[in-house]
Amino acid sequence: MTATQTHCPYCALQCGMTLTPEIPRVRLEPAEFPVNRGGLCAKGFTAADLLDHTDRLLTPLVRKEPGNRESPLREASWEEAYDRIVTAIRDSQERFGPDSVGCFGGGGLTNEKAYALGKFVRVALRSSAIDYNGRFCMSSAATAANRSLGIDRGLPFPLADVAEAKTVMLVGANPADAMPPSMQYLDTGRANGAKHIVIDPRRTNTANGAHMHLAPLPGTDLALANGMLHIAIREGWVDEAFIAERTEGFAAVRTATNAYWPERVERMTGVPEAQLREAVRLLATEGPSMILTARGAEQHSNGTDTAQAWLNLALALGLVGRPFSGYGTITGQGNGQGGREHGQKADQLPGYRRLDDPAARAHVAGVWGIDPDELPQPGRSAYEMIDALGNDGGVRVLWILASNIVVSAPHSSHVVNQLNMTDFLVVSDIFPSETAQLADVVLPTAQWAEEEGTMTNLEGRVIRRKMALPPPPMVKSDLTVLTELAGLLGRGEFFTDEPEAVFEELRRASAGGIADYAGISYERIEAEQGVFWPCPDERHPGTRRLFADGFPTASGRARFVRVDHRDPAEVPDDAFPYVLTTGRNMQQYQSGTQTRRVRALNVALPEPRAEIHPDLARRHGIADGDMVELRSRRGAATLRARLSDGIRPDTVFAPFHWPGANLLTNPALDPHSKMPAFKVCAIALCKAEEGSS
Questions:
Q1: pLDDT tens-digit profile of 64-84?
Q2: Cα–Cα distance between 271 and 218 in angstroms, integer?
Q3: Closest to 506 (Cα-Cα) out of 454, 469, 547
Q4: Does the pTM exceed 0.90?
Q5: Is the dihedral of CA 284, 285, 290, 292 positive or negative?
């Protein structure tokens, strides 16, 4: 049988792997791709188990009694499913206008599908109502990078550069669990004498191997970064020449950091002054140095400003644009990078163009063959869209693709209520997720090994996803469904379901934009093991490293932006005296729709566990393995306790891969990025009653 080299369906590493169809199953082997270099994590090694799983959706499903979501779902033909969807769209738009119909996408969609979905909403539906689950992942770091550096590419250098850095600071990042194959670069660096600093309220597997572990109170990372910059200025460690030649706005930031003297920052964060001083000394004097942030720093109601504070520190130390040095953010979802570049976000058009920019509208409309005035203005962000479902002016007919927001969105009981308020709900997925179980119509979709397309990994490397086997007979790709529905809505001439043709159009639409793919082709990707954007023409080699010669800002300089600490949207009090923070486990991924169905992963980690310090557990009579109830102002969840002295005594950690953790989380939004405050909410806890689950 023919072997096909493709890529893992999970995280933004997009590890290379080879699939060989055999009877009765598919053989999966790691590939020597530049990112994973022959390595895979447990999730990647077991990814083929998804392809023939007994829970696989194989036909469309509709409610036995139309309009009654209490009635069971039954199998249906595509014609019947389409008829119900198109009727609901037309009825809603006739009664409530174009914006009453919308789509919610996913960071796992290929570039082609993300691009086509954004086009479908704006051209076929003529609606402004689109956003995606990447708003819950990368939006704060992206906003900070755009306003400071003029461009958002998670890592502005290849992942391999991490191995060459002598000091690496990881802020709110736990790659040992989230993307294990990436640890080879950190391991190589340490073997060559590099020193790593991990900033996390937990002593994670990543922190266990680090030179230093700083454990701040969740929600105080901005103060920590400003405190480090204060020390760097006082000690004369800032790079005055770099600041003068390549940046602007430092004077205001210098003034702001006067308020963050070490003793005050220690009181605010809980990080000892000596650790603050040593951490910034290493960054400043033992280079080349990198600062890498991830969701622990960014998923806050001030996440943009927090990412900005770390960017300010990197710029002040002169780290950016130098070999094996700089600032980056670690993308989480498989196509979290490409998914936000080409039109899934409420405010963006392909190529990372702004939807409210007349020149951008004219360019993309020209590629699409429509009048620019036909394009809607920006719509609501992801949680704002959810919060308005079924209300006056909100979306009443919603199509969700590749996203399980019942588990992944904050304040999930409210999310369920809002989904139930819609007049009509469609969900496309490969399994019957918790969100799909609420739908009027469920559409089965082809999965990773059954489709063609491109993905953009955490480095900005555009890669090929290849079809290794066909989808089941009644299963269609999302591109086909988008094209067929557009045809039924009278806009079919604008769409195609041929992936390479979609990518060729994407190249034209992105040309001249920030995320310029014009010079990238399927052939080049194949020949070069991926091409780094921006790549403006076919003679361009692709941009492996950004900022060596300048910044894509109006002035050509990087911008410092003054940011000040403010308390989280919710702080502990007498009723809710502790802090909950959420995150990942090694064996599971995102909402668990896929990984919770893989037997080997469930054997390794069959249930979520609340990580609690022994001192805190002792105060509440909780032993390791007991069931504990966590309560916030929004709801309650019962989890089994795991006692660990590696977490702060005032903090509880819960993984978000199962229903439960997001019953508690706070949907307070960052004013710039509209990121919810996943990482901090106030909770109470107690030992659960016997029989609780």
A1: 999 999 999 999 999 999 999
A2: 11
A3: 454
A4: yes
A5: negative
